[in-house]
Amino acid sequence: MFGFRDIEIIHAIARHGGFRAASDATGLAQSAISRRVRHLEDRLKVVLFERDGRGVRLTAAGRRLCDETEILVAQRDRILEELTQDVMAGVVRLGVAETMTHTVLPRLLTDLRNRHPLLRFEISIDTSDQMAHLLQKDGLDVAIMMRDQAPRGVNLTPLPAVSLGWFVSPEHFDLPDPADIDDLAALPIVSFPKATLPHRRVVDLLSPARKQAAAIHGSASLATVLHLVSQGFGIGTIPSDIVAAWPHAGLKEINVQPRAMLPDLEFAICYMPERNEKIGREVTRAALQAANE
Question: Pfam families recorded for this chain (predicted)?
Fold first, then answer.
């Protein structure tokens, strides 16, 4: 219906009090300005200026157009300034494994907010296999996910390993010290979701040479796992840092035989370099700093 040049001309007429003064200010011929205004009024089907012997003044519709379009002009100028001065702004689609939401994520986002206040974050908490798919399909800009499940072609930076342990509510279960695989497999177990690599590792650890499969329950919510274990539903496989951050859960790490120990979780910051090199590098920097604090 109208362009920025139309807006600038209307503002110039209103600011300088007439078509001739606006012509001097914009460098356009007065006839061209008159023609532009007439065509704009025809398209909008409103009268923007009232003409009198001393010049012109805005109608009610004209004043509203000027007031509303000031916001558009300011936004245009801001966008152009950000683009030309290489300012980081806009929405970052960030995928995060839930383990990282309780450790790295808060410090990472605080760092990025302080450095780049014009950035906005759209955060998705998901499994690593789903994040791998979204990275490939341009559904995410950056993901913090299990390193072993990163898709081909990503720029990948490892994070420090996360210790994973067996935990129990001592008032509900009494296990041998140290506990062996059979001791663990005899109890209900709450672990990561079924489709995830940590869940499969627990299954592989407990399944060999057993007549009956262990009862392993999966949850995508670490808060749910903590609650179930603290209430005596079963024992849990939980990152040690998460348990340390939730002392009110009252959980104790189970001392286990070496063969029953769980491997560390290895996470990485991943992004597709051809699409998200700039923001990917900055998220990587902030994530590494947050992980080492």
Answer: HTH_1, LysR_substrate
Which DSSP category does 264 fall into? P
Q: 253 and 171, same structural domain?
A: yes
Q: pLDDT per residue over 44-69, tens digit each?
A: 899 998 877 667 888 999 889 888 88
Residues 135 and 185 in one domain: no
Q: Whose CA is closest to 104, among 225, 278, 224, 265?
A: 265
Give me the residues of the chain with pLDDT under 70, please. 53-54, 81-87, 208-212
Task: Quote the pLDDT of residue 225.
Answer: 94
What does the angle CA 68 – CA 73 – CA 24 come to, to the nearest 5 degrees? 105
- pTM attached to this predicted model: 0.68
Question: What sign has the CA pseudo-torsion 129, 157, 279, 152?
Answer: negative
The amino acid at 194: K
How far apart are the C-alpha atoms of 123 and 126, rounded to whole Å?
A: 10
Provide Rg for the chain, Cα atoms. 31
Q: Are residues 189 and 108 in the same domain?
A: no
Residue 173: give its domain's CATH number.
3.40.190.10
Q: What are the residue ranges of helices labelled H in 102-178?
A: 104-115, 128-136
Structure tokens at 261: 């120990």
What is the pLDDT, as a whole number, of residue 208?
67
Tally Cβ neighbours within 10 Å of residue 140.
26
pLDDT of residue 156: 95
E-state strands within the chain: 49-52, 55-58, 90-96, 119-125, 142-146, 155-158, 164-168, 189-191, 216-218, 235-239, 252-253, 267-271
**What pLDDT is attached to residue 86?**
62
